[in-house]
Fold this sequence. Notes:
The complex is a heterodimer. Helices cover 20% and strands 35% of the residues of chain A. By secondary structure, chain A is an alpha+beta fold. In chain A, strands 2-1-3-4 form a four-stranded antiparallel sheet, covered by helices on one side. Chain A has a two-stranded antiparallel ribbon with strand order 5-6. Chain A is globular and about 60 Å long. Chain A starts with 15 loop residues before the first helix and ends with a strand. Chain B is an alpha/beta fold. In chain B, 30% of the residues are buried. Chain B starts with a helix and ends with a helix. Classes of the chains: A alpha+beta, B alpha/beta. At the A-B interface, helix 2 of A face helix 8 of B.
Amino acid sequence: MRLTQGTFSFLPDLTDEQIRKQVEYALSKDWAIGVEYTDDPHPRNTYWEMWGQPMFDLHDAAGVMQEIQACRLAYPNHYIRINAFDSQRGFETVRLSFIVQRPENEATYRLVRTEAAGRTIRYTLERHRT
Amino acid sequence: MTAAPPTTPDAPDRTAPQAVDRPPAQTNDSPPPQAVDLRALQEQYAVSELLEQLDRDLVGLEPVKRRIREIASFLLVARARANAGISSSPPTLHMAFTGNPGTGKTTVAQRMAGILHRLGYVRKGHLVSVTRDDLVGQYIGHTAPKTKEVLKRAMGGVLFIDEAYYLYRPENEKDYGQEAIEILLQVMENQRDDLTVILAGYPDRMRSFFESNPGFRSRIAHHIEFPDYSDDELMQIADKLAEEAEYRLSSGAREAMREYIARRRRQPNFANARSLRNAFDRARLRQALRLVQWEGAVGVNDLVTLEESDIRSSRVFVEGTTHERRHNS
């Protein structure tokens, strides 16, 4: 099943040129760019592994593209995403986040129902198969 | 152009395929791009404006200005060649600025970034100015990320490495500077369209740096030497400094300044325009003190005028005289 997380996730995967333009846009807004990867894209897994440190003070997307390439090379079968962090007072949060690589066999999850007291049902999202 | 006649016979079949993959070429149906209007191109990129500004703002530095004009023209021609469909590899733009302290290397690098940006050879046109400390790490494994960090910041602009020879410490073979040099060389070679590197430093040390790092020498296309300023040029700079800060030098002060320059030059650690700027700043301090201690009313004219005494009380004159006295006796 296709993982839909972050911006653009209902669109076809972005090409490198499109990624570059998005990064360029984020830089034009003075957002810091971070590259992150994971093999466990569970919706509750908010914190992915950081690929190096977030990049502040960049002027051009070339540096970010270089890091994405390096990360792809190191983790060809992981999910990789770009986070653009806005440090401006009042936001101080990620303003843009999108996936730039997904593995060929995407992670799948299934819903597990657990009976609890008084006919209550608890739901868990569980990794189905890898 | 004069070279047109010999190329006319094969011109039609050469332009035919060109018109297909280059839509703009179709617009001029009459003689295909035989003549290129460089002046129009120059105007389009507004380079001459920048060059004139450079001429106006920087005193002296004639050889430097000439070299920059050459480079700018070369890049313009390269641009014209590319537009005309002549295949040429993108020019190497890395440069080395050598000159004594205070001869305007950083200032010119800033202008250079602007010129390269106008001509479209760097995408953003910002200048990232670094020294050894910004590139070389403190411990094993620290250097590469640090250097890469700086390179990423400089992407799309110009990386200005001041006192580049400090990167290379021949006396210590375990020095991490070598690692930074290797990363730099690699990027200078492989990502030429992402960033331009300018190395700067004092002439003699740069020379030995290049001798021990032939990799740098061969990757740098333009070596520009910054001459020392003459006394007259320094005087012009002094006038300019005063004008910019809205001060006026009285005629006595100008005379004193002229003498100051001649004396200061002979003393150690003379740093051309930088020494002058410092002298000017100190003269402003003395003027302020003089005005505050003055008991009468202070007019607007007094506020903007630097007097002879403000400059004459410099250490340079005191030391100079004792020095001379010792010599005379």
